[in-house]
């Protein structure tokens, strides 16, 4: 039986790695990967606490919902990234600074 | 004992590969290491006795998200096949400092909270002898019943949203037709 706090520490570390990727990466795909890390850290906490809630299984159910929503978000975000690349010929978010043509 | 050893190997894999994803200069390697992180996260889910969530993680993330990411990466860097060095970006530099500071401070706050919270002493966890999952339990049974009764409305909302997202993605990614 692994103590709950170990799961929480791992998920905190993963969340901060994702936060760093979101804040300092210069490629839209790497920023998306950082967001996925943060989502996965949250899912790990959901699932770890759900071990003590067998009959309602709230944590596991919402972990499933979160995985599905993350997949939907990735599909839309990657389509947007492809469109941005077609328009600006770069996916560096610091260089995409114009809304007009 | 063996349980603990395997658990810590998996968690070390998760953290190391996630760290390498962030640090590596070569973006293709970073995306493939992302695969390792997601797989070992599925391993950690098994240790919380959530085997169905682990399988979903492997199917959805490794099967769907990762393939999409590699496709997009290769489509948005057409010259990478000619010179792979072009995608290298500097790992060190002054522009990374704010991100490092914010992430490090946030990590310190989270660790302080986790160490003080003492989650084993929460009331509903302490009194959860009957409803604690055992390794022999069939979690899919409970999940299926709950999805069709207690969480039916969120389930339908998520399915609707997934369909909307797929239609939206297909619309965004299509080619404009010249008239």
From TrEMBL, chain A:
EC number: 7.1.1.-
Keywords: Cell membrane, Membrane, NAD, Quinone, Translocase, Transmembrane, Transmembrane helix, Transport
GO biological process, one term: ATP synthesis coupled electron transport
Record-level Gene Ontology MF annotations: NADH dehydrogenase (quinone) (non-electrogenic) activity; quinone binding
A cellular component term, taken from the record's GO annotations: NADH dehydrogenase complex
Transmembrane segments: 6-23, 30-50, 62-85
Alphabetized InterPro entries for the sequence: NADH_UbQ_OxRdtase_chain4L/K (IPR001133), NUOK/Mnh_C1-like (IPR039428)
Membrane topology term: Multi-pass membrane protein
Catalytic activities: a quinone + NADH + 5 H(+)(in) = a quinol + NAD(+) + 4 H(+)(out)
Location (main, coarse): membrane
Record keyword Translocase present: yes
Highest taxon, organism lineage: Bacteria
Subcellular location: Cell membrane; Membrane
HAMAP family: NDH1_NuoK (MF_01456)
Family stated for the protein in its record: Belongs to the complex I subunit 4L family.
Function: NDH-1 shuttles electrons from NADH, via FMN and iron-sulfur (Fe-S) centers, to quinones in the respiratory chain. The immediate electron acceptor for the enzyme in this species is believed to be a menaquinone. Couples the redox reaction to proton translocation (for every two electrons transferred, four hydrogen ions are translocated across the cytoplasmic membrane), and thus conserves the redox energy in a proton gradient.
Subunit structure, as described in the record: NDH-1 is composed of 14 different subunits. Subunits NuoA, H, J, K, L, M, N constitute the membrane sector of the complex.
Protein name in the entry: NADH-quinone oxidoreductase subunit K
Organism annotation: Pararcticibacter amylolyticus
Gene name tied to this protein: nuoK
